[in-house]
Amino acid sequence: MKFLKKFFRHPKLIVAVCLLVTAGCGFFIKNLTLDNSIRQFFPQKDVSYTRMTETEDQFGSMLSIGLTLEAKDGTILTPEYIDVVRKITDRALSIKEVENIDSLTHIDYVCEQDGSICATQLIPDTYTGTEEDINLLRSRLSEWDDMYGRVIINDDGTATQMQITISPNKTSESDSTRQQRVLDEVRSIAKEETKGHSLKFKLAGEPVLSENSRAFMMSDLMRLIPLVIIVVLLSLFLSFKTVDGTILPLITVLMSTVISCGLMGMFGVTFTLVSSVIPVALIAVGSAYGIHVLTHYYVALDSIEGELTKEKYEECVFSGLKEVWTAVLLAGLTTIVGFISLVSSPIGPLHSFSVFTAIGVALSLIFSVTFIPAVLLLKDLSKVRTKSRKIAKLTDKMKSRLEKAKKLRGGKEEDEASADTLYSIFKFFCGSKTRLVLTSLAIVALSLTGLRLLKIDTALINYFPKTAQFRQDLDYIDKDFAGTNSVFFTITGPEKGDIANPELLKAVDDMQNQLQEDHESIGKIVSLTTFIKRINQVWHVPTTETVQETQTAAVSEEDSAQTADLSWGDDSDWGSSDSLSWGDDETSEEETVPQVQFNDPNTEYAKVLSGTMTTKEVLDLLNEAYTAAGGKNATTDEIVDELMKKTNYNGAAYYEIPYDTAKYPVASREELKGVVNGYLTLLSGSLGRFIDDDMNPQTMRITCQLRSHSTDETGSIIADAKKFAQERFPEGYTLEATGSGEMEYTMTKMIVSSQFSSLAVSLISVFIIIAVSFKSVWAGLLGAVPLALAILLNYMTMGFAHINLDLVTSIIASVAVGVGIDYTIHFLTTYREERAKSDDIVLVTKMTFKKSGHGIMTNAVAVGLGFLVLCLSKFTVLKYIGVLVAIVMFTSSFLAMTIIPGILNLTDPKFIRPKEK
């Protein structure tokens, strides 16, 4: 008591310090940055993040904005709409942060031009918008569908898409601010250029997701915090019916919330979707400490007899505080332990949620035992007397109502009636050994069943409701185009130049085809092989010259020597000083050139295409194509493709990696590497996004677009790719996955590991706290049981309700431990007190329910209602949080009043029995 009097000697100073600290920290709230991008969530020291940044340094940024233009009146391929695409592309390219754009008017097209092979633009410079030009464009789009189909244009030609790549951030400016500025400029350009045209545009990509999440968060914070305050105010008013009792506990949690959020701004911690739970959690949970302090204050005030003097009043404040100090401290400590358990998580938002929620709870506790008593000590005694008389009147009214209710219930008081109900519930579920075992087994069985249905998915898109415009736009793009999600693969060879190895390129091409066949969610895969196959096709388009140049299959020894060093096409070069030869480019003049006898298959293709066929030959060809395409299961497109390959129409038979030596004038497959190197020379400057070096690549990157946002599916694709590479790639080559899709998948594993570690930490901490408090290891084990079961029931609920365990829902276990432990401690403490008074176990149990049952249920309902406000959030995942926390509050309080008394009554452990009669 002396310490309290000394500490509160200057209550005005205490109030001033509390308010100044709040104002000082609150000033930094303006520095808070709202960001929900996957890059913000992911730990930047993790190997996945490092791999992504290194890949971006090698091949360019993987951060992009997708802009889709949809024609309302039919085809997008009109001179008017193509002009709009060109203007948007040109203007967007002038944005400082834009690294590259793929669009209908700005994308490579590999073709033969003026006797040489080159990478030019899809729409040539000679384009004027005539019908002939449009038809040529349609032909080019169809001709190289692997490159353009569902990437640049959708299947029915009514919409086009452009990918605007944002360069990596090399400045001190925050990434979210920079991305938002680019997005605003792109949106402004799209609005201006589509104005007056029958075009509708949609935006997608990480910057768009971040923008929508910020808008949703701001809306939530503006609506939910006032609602939580109203809920808490109502519960406080109904509890105390006084201004002090209503306002002071609320002020303490608001102060702690302001300081916690201010500290986040002060230390540059990003405010994420997980962080938005902090204010709601603190207001719902933190007010309990102020309630405890004021309850004991009013009890002490009501016990004062005679005239209220300053000395008596101070004694009243101090005695009430002294009585409640230990209980409040223990309650606060256990709640802090629950929240702080997530500090072991490697995921930044979970780590910051853990730290700053724990800080907020600690501050709520501190303010409750400092700020509230200081304010009470500053009150005018005349007003205190007035409030005291009001309390007396309210007490008399309440007693009168209780008496009436008692008569209606057969003479039982409200607490007694409530205790009887709770005792009956306990008897039904755990009143005997058999019932306790059956109830426990039923809980475990149901939990394990639901746990098997639980899915772990960290896709950020799932946080948004499907009715949101942003989600609808994504669904449209995922349906009509290659998809808005992506994962990248990097393949590295032992030495420089090894990526040109046909053995590897053939295996990569097979892997890509296998992945697309096995996974419907893959919309498109584009890589170096896409370009190699295209240039190989263009070079082998049959012409009449092919027939004239190869009249015989046999080649003389002299001709063979020439063929071994043959430049493709006519006698001229490739349009540059470099010529492409079939043999080894490093063969010296002294070396003997091996003789090659080569029958060019293109000779027969050219004869067929330039000649006439009988009806039978046509039907035979169609039948062969029909059979090769899969027979009755084949589609028209597949049959046509096979028919084109069988006649090598437009070089279709050579749309492949140069691999079959029978189709090329080489002696071995090793010599085909020279052919690939020649292709790389021709495409020099156009492959920066796919290989690390134009001439001697050692690493290549594959872009895999996904039409699904399931991290489970992404993980399956990555696993299949790695398995294929391990089994089929030549020795020495490695494959790694990277990009936002891979990071989301990796984060699922992090969440699982962090859940195990945080639960282990929290349950062990609970065990230690209870064991120390009751001086018994058995007490610690007993106290952890209902919390463990409550967590299992939470996972069960999530499994049956198809709610994913993700970045946000993973915090529920911490809330369950942090708040649920109070119920356990409260019940155990009261039970031990009653056990010291009697050996009648039934009487002890009933009295425990009478004294603590109502309080436990009231607290559970209050906290549950506070979190249920989250059901009004715009985020789907926060709605889940609101419901799940409310359920956890019910289950943890239910288990504390069924499983624990069941075990205590059956075992009557030593720690619960009195040492002396």
Give short descriptive properties of this protein:
917 residues; alpha+beta; Multidrug efflux transporter AcrB transmembrane fold; four-stranded antiparallel β-sheet; 61% helix; cell membrane; transmembrane helix
Notes on the protein architecture:
The protein has 32 helices and 10 strands. The protein has 917 residues and is α+β, with helices and mostly antiparallel strands. Among the domains are: 170 residues, Up-down Bundle (Multidrug efflux transporter AcrB transmembrane fold); 173 residues, no CATH class; 30 residues; 215 residues, Multidrug efflux transporter AcrB transmembrane domain (Multidrug efflux transporter AcrB transmembrane fold, Up-down Bundle), CATH 1.20.1640. Helices cover 61% and strands 7% of the residues. The strands form 3 sheets. The protein has a 4-stranded antiparallel β-sheet with strand order 2-5-1-6, with helices on both faces. About 5% of the residues have low confidence. It starts with a helix and ends in a 10-residue tail after the last helix. It comes from Treponema peruense. Keywords: Cell membrane, Membrane, Transmembrane, Transmembrane helix.
